[in-house]
Amino acid sequence: MEEPAKGTVTPFASMFPFDEAKKAVKRVEDAIAEKQKELERHKQFIADNTNLVNLVSRLPDELHHDVMVPFGKAAFFPGRLIHTNELVVLLGEGYYAERTAKQTIEILTRRGKALDSQVESLKANIKDLRAEASFFGSTAAEAAEGLVEIREDYVEKSYTEEQSKSEKVDKKVRVEDDEYAHIMSRLDELEKEELAAEGDNESDEDEHSNTAESDNESGEDECIDIVGSDNESDEDEQTDAAKRGSDIHEYNQTEATFNNFASQTHLETRKAQKQTKVENLSVEALSNKFHHQLDTTDQPNCTGLTVQPVPKDDMSSSRSLTQIKKSVPAEKDLMLPGVKEKLEAASSQLRFDSSKAFTGSIVEHLSNIEKNSQNQTVTSSQTPVRASRPGFDSSKSFTSSIVEHIDNMPTSQEQTATSSQSPNAQPSKPVSRFKMQRR
Amino acid sequence: MASSTAIRELQRDLEDKANDLSKLQKDIAKNHQVRKKYTVQLGENELVLKELDLLNEGANVYKLIGPVLVKQDLAEANANVRKRIDYISAELKRLDATLQDLEEKQNSKKDAILKLQQRIQSLQAGKAKA
To answer: Are residues A104 and A49 both part of a single domain?
Structure first.
């Protein structure tokens, strides 16, 4: 973090050293093994007890039993058990009592119940220890992975204040995750409806993406210029924070759209977009929207991604864009526009799709096309701003992606795959996914 | 070199304290074991008492003394078991008290050792500067 006031970053490994965590795991495992042994012993007791109950219950069936009586260690002699209904029962602590077989069985069953309860408590104990062990294990693994803990004070301030902005966004995004899942489920339903209507609209879509592409080319020149000039960190941070602010806008708007599914909301969204454009900040918002929608349309194809949070995706792809710019400065103008073109074609098209889902009217589409192509020009001319903050923001996005990682631990095989991919491989990812979706 | 002798003294002190601490820890461990034993006995005695209560008046009760079973009065056996339970509970209480005492001592020893270590460190740092 750049500003110390924002929060602290503590490597997990410093709080819980890997070795210590390992040791703790081992100790708990030992405790579990011990308890396990005890449990076995108790089970043995229970088995003995039930055997004894069976034997005692059979004894008084006959007046006498012919048995081989053990004599010393090696010898037996034939004998006869008489008084089959008279038993001397050990009560414990050296006390014995004379009992009939029936009474003995009562005593034994009571003893069996006591044993059962002990076994139950042991099992609960073992379960607790298991949980502890798994916790220690995961802590050790996290420490080994080099996770960091990020603590930030939550400060309630207005959006105009720069510092609080990003913090707020962090918080917001997390809340958004839940809502997002909710929205996703709703969207899945809509997808089905959309699929039905897909056939009619295919041709429209193609036209539309063409428009987007041609619009893009005009924007490319500008974009390269800005890359060079926009390197001061203050400004970057500002735009960054502002961008995050507009993220929220976007989120809320999309959410609203999802909830109402009315063309009216669409208008609102567009208006708001214009507003942000005035502030020259719509870039991120738009690309976010694209990601959003990319994810959305992704859903039916890979159900494993259903809960995948948007912010994560944004981070990785924007990061990867950044990295590409950094690593291949010479090819910048060749490569990026290509990627961008695709992305934007996707974005326009996807937005198109979703608008179709929401309104279901073709008139709406047409107006949207114009709108979108307009937006795209802005997008392409603005993207470089985002690309020009590699030093500062890559670390930032890195940390926040860790937060995501922690949040989504259980769900995300898919996700870890994403994060473990090399940065250079990433740019192709959204595109290829998109392609997959196309088919 | 007054500081070096001071350090040496402090280190000896530290060693002594560490030995004390390990002794205390041993005591605590022993205490735990004894306590465990008594708890088990208490449980067993309670079981016996329950069974004895369930026996009717005329039942024959024997106590194993050495190799032989000695016949005992039911009331007597009952009283004996009760007495034994009382004794064990008292013993457990006593053990708890000593355990608490030991733990307090252990904590104070740990604090003392920590302070000693800090002092040694600061002294060494001072020496390194000078």
So the answer is: yes
Contact B84 A96 (CB under 8 A): no
Say yes or no: B116 contacts chain A, CB-CB below 8 A. no
What's the pLDDT at A151?
80
Q: How far apart are CA A13 and CA A109, in angstroms?
A: 53
Name residues 26-55 of chain B within 8 A of A (Cβ): 41, 44-45, 47-48, 50-52, 54-55
User: What is the interface size between A and B, counted as CB pairs within 8 Å?
Assistant: 53
**Weakest-pLDDT range from A139-148, A153-162, A341-350, B46-55:** A341-350
- Model confidence over A247-299: pLDDT tens digits? 545 454 444 444 444 444 444 445 444 444 444 444 444 444 444 444 444 44
Helix (H, G, I), strand (E, B) or coil at B68: strand
Domain limits at A111?
A: 14-136
* A97:B60 CB<8 A: yes
Which residue from A minimizes the CA distance to B85?
Answer: A93
In this structure, are residues A250 and A288 in contact, taking their beta carbons and an 8 Å threshold?
Answer: yes
Nearest to A169 by CA among A311, A287, A272: A311
Among candidates A88, A95, A106 on the partner chain, residue whose Cβ is nearest the Cβ of B48: A95
Residues A185 and A266 both lie in one domain:
yes
Q: Is the Cβ pair B60, A107 closer than 8 Å?
A: no
CATH number, position A60? 1.10.287.370
Reported ipTM: 0.76
